[in-house]
Amino acid sequence: MDGFNGKAALASVFFCLLATSAAAKGPKVVTSIMPIHALAAEVMAGVGAPELLVEGAASPHSFNLKPSDAQALEEADVVIWIGEGLEMFLQRPLANLKEETQVLTLSELEGIHLLPSRGSGLHDEHADDVEGHAHHDYHHVHGPVDPHLWLAPENGIIIANQIAETLAERDPDWADLYRENAQRMTRKLQALESRVQQKLLPFQGYSFLVFHDAYQYFEEAFGLRSGGSITLDAERQPGARRLREIRNWIGEQGPSCVFAEPQFEPRVLHMLVEGTEAQIGLLDPVGATLELGPGAYAALLDGLADGFVDCFAQQSR
Hints:
Elements: H1 3-25, E1 29-31, H2 34-44, E2 51-52, H3 67-75, E3 78-81, H4 91-95, E4 102-105, E5 115-116, E6 145-146, H5 153-170, H6 175-200, E7 208-210, H7 216-222, E8 228-229, H8 240-253, E9 257-260, H9 269-273, E10 279-282, H10 296-315
Parallel strand pairs: 1-2, 1-3, 3-4, 7-8, 7-9, 9-10
Antiparallel strand pairs: 5-6
């Protein structure tokens, strides 16, 4: 081994030991859902890694804490969640945390962009039910504010920087690294936003329906507009009247896309599109199939863009 390679090897060992030491001493961060875990992982890279409560295809709408999850919350220095409009399972546990645990509620951050919940069902004001009267159901399980705020890149930037500031105050020894990571994430998301905008630009104005109304922030960011959602909320299957309304809408639209989700793939989609020109696509608003860690948030937004493009490309053939 020559002198240069020997020094490089020693430097590599040093930085590995430094990262291991930092991870052992860094704050214990618990996150609710994968997109928030991904942003926290990006900010904490080189210091430690956050823990995730809602894993894989589990839904935050119906999640129940395991004993190990409750233990993680009890030991946490910082807990990061969207807010009571999404992770209702966390409301009581967070109220009972020890006083020194810091809870970061992302829906309450200064500068965060929030959108009102839309009426469930078809958004077209001319959509009629079987009696010929305009039919909308403005009930929404999430309340007045749409909680899927992580699907706007501008919110991702705000969240990453706020996580960095929270951890910098909690762990000042690594404050510079947290902030540098957040700045790097900001540049990455700005580039991603431009890239996704170009990817989706040819498909603005294309008609589509989603399984549940989780994509409003993404639609606004990239010039899309859904015709509506199939379900009132993610946990309830649509009734007969809603299915007839949706079926009529699909028939009138001609080529369109109807999107399922890996977490709640409904059995009714094939029935809805049978005999029509509509295509079935797949969107994943929480990145259920993505590998955890830094890079997962960008992969989530890229994956959504690809899901739209794949289906719209079939629609335009």
